[in-house]
Model the fold of this input.
Amino acid sequence: MRKYFLTLILLSTSICFAQTWNNSPIPNTSKQMVLVLTDSITSTNGELVYFERQNDKSSWKKISSTIPIVLGRNGLGWGRGLNSIDSLKLPMKTEGDGRSPAGVFELGAAFGYASASEIKGLKIPYIPITEMVECIDDIKSSYYNQIVARDDIKEVDWQSSEKMFFAEIWYQQGIVIEQNTNPIINGSGSCIFLHNWSQPNETTAGCTEMEPEKLKELIYWLDSSSNPILIQLTKQLFNEYQNPWQLPIPIDIP
Done:
């Protein structure tokens, strides 16, 4: 597990410099986009659609229906991803603030309770969640914001973590959002995922949730070779960044 995430961080480093010539934080190599929009910074629900393009010179084309999602109990705050931060527009995300991260983020591995042998046809890495797998949210730990297997760690230095195998339906399947991974800054938010909801009227501690069957479709659509990204914004911020970030034209969004 540890090796996987160190590799992912190094990959993220190279991608950060592979951006378009203008102010867009979207890498030239990205051909898949998952877009989440909310009505305001305090909204706890929103809509998700996904897009694809042939290359960085072509337009984004919507290929999914509009999918309802739920967010953190306190809405959105700027996460640490690929985009520059304007702190006048949104508060910064911090550990335990109940906000989902706004901005542009790489999407990493899928994870779930099924064993690797049970999962066929994925085009992204997969992390099987066992009883020993934890995501570390202790801001004092050297493993902060990393998914680790406890039995692989020589010296456990954390006092709190998410024991992912015991999260019932929520972590039955999910996707890692690369928030605060390049580099990891302790206290800037941890363990942020796209994952199942149990019901459509709940909120989260900072993740983005959706209907399980729709999430499964998304997981199988994602392709690491297309460098998929997640963009989470309010509709107002989307309108502000639509041109400089080369986002889909407004008629294509919910």
